[in-house]
TrEMBL record:
PROSITE patterns: MFS. Its main location: membrane. Pfam families: MFS_1 (PF07690). Keywords: Membrane, Transmembrane, Transmembrane helix. GO terms for molecular function: transmembrane transporter activity. The lineage of its organism: Bacteria, Pseudomonadati, Pseudomonadota, Gammaproteobacteria, Pseudomonadales. It comes from Pseudomonas frederiksbergensis. This is MFS transporter.
Length: 383
């Protein structure tokens, strides 16, 4: 079967840019809806931190396996079909995550959920690279800003529904309706093709692609820590009511959204290198504040600073992937997405094991040190 090649006369325009933004919103909304449900799943199944970390590893495995497959499928069937299929997988998994209590069923549900997330994330970034290049403008921060906006709506919205006394299952049905409506809006102008480049579905990243992927891994690890562990940290260490524990991720997503929606202008003014350096320093300081300050209000401020610092690092790195010529983009994008999202999806499982052996605060401290390494390493990346 041959890849779908876009007609020469067809170039992505404003409608395709809008559909790309909606697809990023779907990705952020879907993954953030899970954050407020984590404490409920933990309590329902009677899990400790180590067991929860093992279960979250299933989410990461599902996503990482799906990412390279998604871009390969997009090259054959188009971004539209693959993005739609990934969104439907998310919708199928959410009710299971809100109801099942046995560990085997939770593992299966998390694997399915991760596969849907990985499919959407990898494919939408491939579409974003194609659409940004066709526009001739810097648009990646704005695209990723819609991911963060989806994170705000997902985390805060589900937290609000739970706070009103709606059951986790009821909240997930609201999420599913919202996801399907968003998909129907975006689908007509999602790209019916993928990258025209040929090559294997996955290749080990090397050279500058490996370097970019490593930085993505650390930044996404910090994001994954806030997504999967901030609610647990706020409830167990800061004694915040479970219904409001999703506010930690909401604070992070709010500042990340503002940073990314204004990020194209920020990158233009400061330059990509300074964005990486200052962003890494700010994120590290915020995570330390959230971990060491005794008040839950200070923790929310710390998570907000993590969002400020991380907001434009990853968009800058994806733009760099679109400019490099070491690997074809349809291979490089899933390669760094897979390596990067190993941080946001598989990384939190490692955090669980560290927290089980020492403490959650110690695990967060290690991530802060890695963010400092991102700030130092950013000077070596020519973007």
């Amino acid at each position: 079967m041959t890849a779908i090649i876009p007609p020469v006369s067809v170039r992505p325009g404003r409608l395709e840019q809008m559909s790309t933004r909606i697809a990023f919103f779907i990705a952020g909304f879907g993954i953030a809806a899970w954050a407020p449900l984590v404490p409920y799943a933990k309590a329902r199944a009677g899990l400790d931190d180590g067991t929860l970390g093992l279960l979250l590893l299933c989410l990461g495995v599902g996503s990482i396996l799906a990412m390279p497959m998604a871009c390969a499928l997009a090259s054959r069937f188009g971004c539209r079909r693959v993005l739609s299929g990934g969104t439907l997988l998310i919708c199928l998994a959410l009710p299971l995550l809100a109801t099942v209590s046995s560990i085997p069923l939770l593992m299966a549900a998390l694997f399915l959920f991760g596969a849907g997330l990985g499919t959407v994330d990898s494919t939408v970034n491939l579409q974003a690279v194609i659409v940004e290049r066709a526009s001739g403008k810097t648009m990646m921060s704005g695209f990723h800003g819609l991911f963060s906006l989806g994170g705000i709506v997902g985390a805060a919205g589900v937290s609000a529904l739970l706070g009103l006394g709606i059951s986790p299952l009821g909240a997930t049905w609201v999420v599913i309706v919202f996801l399907l409506v968003s998909l129907l809006k975006a689908a007509p102008h999602l790209l019916p093709y993928g990258s025209a480049s040929s090559g294997p579905a996955f290749a080990i990243p090397h050279g500058v692609v490996l370097f970019i992927g490593s930085l993505c891994f650390i930044v996404f690890l910090a994001e994954g820590a806030v997504l999967d562990w901030s609610a647990v940290f706020l409830t167990s260490e800061r004694h915040l009511d479970t219904a409001y524990a999703g506010l930690g991720y909401a604070a992070f997503a709010l500042t990340m959204t503002v940073g990314r929606l204004t990020g194209d202008a920020i990158v233009h003014k400061l330059g990509a290198t300074r964005v990486i350096v200052f962003g890494g320093l700010t994120a590290a300081a915020g995570l330390l504040l959230a971990t060491l300050a005794p008040a839950w209000e200070a923790a929310l401020i710390g998570y907000a600073l993590v969002g400020v610092g991380c907001s434009n690092i990853v968009p800058v790195l994806y733009t760099a992937v679109g400019k490099q010529n070491v690997m074809p983009e349809n291979i490089a994008v899933p390669a760094i997405t897979t390596l990067g999202y190993a941080g946001i999806l598989a990384g939190p499982a490692v955090i669980g094991f560290i927290a089980h052996g020492s403490s959650l605060s110690f695990a967060f401290g290690l991530i802060a040190v890695l963010l400092l390494a991102v700030a130092v390493s950013g000077k070596a990346l020519k973007v």
